[in-house]
Amino acid sequence: MSDGLGFSTFFLCLSGEFDPKTLPGVKPLGLIKDIIITILSPFLALRASIELLTTFRAPNSISGDKAMTGIKRGAFTEDLNFDDLKTFCKSKEVTINDYWCALLSNSLYQYFENHKNEKFGGIPSYVSMAMPYSLRQPPKDKKDVKLVNDFIAVPIQI
């Protein structure tokens, strides 16, 4: 199993023009960081387990008190024009990341505000989520490429 970056690396190998510098956003992890992550990984797993076992379980925010049916629902949106988004963000002197974080924050707040009495008993003071953190090291050459999904889920509260 792998993700988009794993497949990008795989297809780059197949192209015959392998250059790890062309891979998006993968920087080598320094020795100290590698050692720290290796040492802390069991403690992070323990922390995440304790948090999952002790966290108050609010009702399902999508279905409320209804039982899960297994029926999947989906929605589609229009494609975003990233050139327009970049121009807008530059005009406001913010990064795209800042824009998306503000958009997510406001969207969650509006959702909780609109449904606070029917589902939540008020607006929650925080939302627990898991943030993926990649442990993948950039390959030095073709023989180092593996289709794996090396990541950990770091629990956060926003």
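The above is record 1. Record 2 follows with the same two-line structure.
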Amino acid sequence: MSDPILTPDHPTLTLLKEEINKSTEAQHDLAKWKLAVTAALGAAAFGLPPLDKPNYLLLFIVPFVCAYIDLYIYQYQLRTLVIARFIRESSGDSVLKAYEDKCKKVREGLGFKLSDWAACGSSIGATLFGAFFQVRHTDLDIRLVSVIWVIGAALVIGLYLFYQIEAYKTDDDAWKLRIWFSKL
């Protein structure tokens, strides 16, 4: 059985394009929430008014909050990739199909990876920042700080790597990425 061909005026095609738009909006909202929540945790940790007393232990929460929000960002990005592939393979609209083919080629380069790097990089940066202050400004055992930091950092990096593997599963070059990760 072959895949259905969606004509340009097919209502399903319109719904799929709307779903991509909604997913993109949700990703942007999540990125804003990530910034706001990490900033609020940082402000509370440093004892900004009305607290006036630093509580650096709050910085331990930051990597887990970042990972949680990144999980949803990556979920929306994967949803968009699946819809785009479906449109590329099933659309009878030659212009839309050509656009999706062009996007696929850009995606194979670095063009669409900037938001991935921003999501992962901001999470790693916030994680490192928190670990630095924990070590320098608390009397906690360095081993405890290190273990919690490693768990948070591993979660952030693990989610990013999982997303990258899932994102490339549907592409022709997926095997290259899986071979590269298997060598780690």
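Residues 11-182 form one domain.
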